[in-house]
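Suppose a colleague, Dr. K., hands you the sequence of a protein chain of 328 amino acids and asks what its three-dimensional shape might be. Before reaching for any lab equipment, you can write down a predicted structure in token form. Begin with the sequence itself:
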Amino acid sequence: MEHQEVISALLARDPLLHEAPMPHEALYFPYGFPLRVCTNSERILELAGESWGRFSAWRAEEPLELHVGIAGGAAAFPSEPVVRSRRHLLTISSDAQHFGVCDFEAGFGYCWLTPRVLEDPSFLRYFFLESHGYSLVCERYFTGIHGACVAYNGHGVLLCGASEAGKSTLAYACAKRGWTFICDDGSFLVRASEDHTITGNPYRVRLRPSATALFPELPALQCGLQPNGKRAIELDTVGFRIAPRAAVEHVVFLSRGRGGPASLRPFSREEAFRQMESVICYGRETTREEQRQSLRRLLSLPVLELCYGELDSAVDCLESLLQQGCRL
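The predicted structure, expressed as tokens, is then:
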């Protein structure tokens, strides 16, 4: 029987699709932690491989589980989903045929989609596959941070700041100078780590279109529209020195726009915590408190503000900081 005929027959005796078989499964390791994806569509596993296939196992934990079902006939292409959370549940919903739920207590998530959404793999991966998978993994193991991470001779630096502060741009500039690239504007603090370990996606970097004025190699690259509606230049980091994680030794908030040589000065830990804590917005309250405590431990490190206007000067300033730290 064709896929849709199987689903139709199943709906006749199981209208909630509670027992719908998910015969295809594979184990992935987003940010190093196990996530089992089960589905009734082999295409979903192909897309999961595109998202997480390059990540390798780091921690031996019981796998979290995500079920992705494809069902339904003709449907309009879904709109950007609405995300809502309450206690241990999170929902991601476009409409009655494109929706999903994460249960953080159970370590389980599922979503149902129609074949129509397979027409746009980037949309499916960004809003459904990755949103569910990363939400499950992050709530269980991480504290999300709006920042980039790079390392110099094994010494990690977390680059923080408001939107458009230049985090991804400076991380890219560091990588071009031979630094180790960990991730751009999406860092995850491993809550159980004692050495302030930051992990993320080292395999790609996204830059704003304005970065073409700073890096001469970028104008030849295509600037595409991301699923969230923002335009960006997305680069594979092949050729760069990369690592899946790093132990952070400094937290640096960026203040771009000042002329003259770049300089570092102390930054308020209270303000740093206020900015970082603002993104703790879902999950169980016990988890949210663990995330706050992990931020307080992280901010026991030196917290600095980097004032700069020119990228090379900013990288020089950071290198000087870490070289000095290495000699102490």
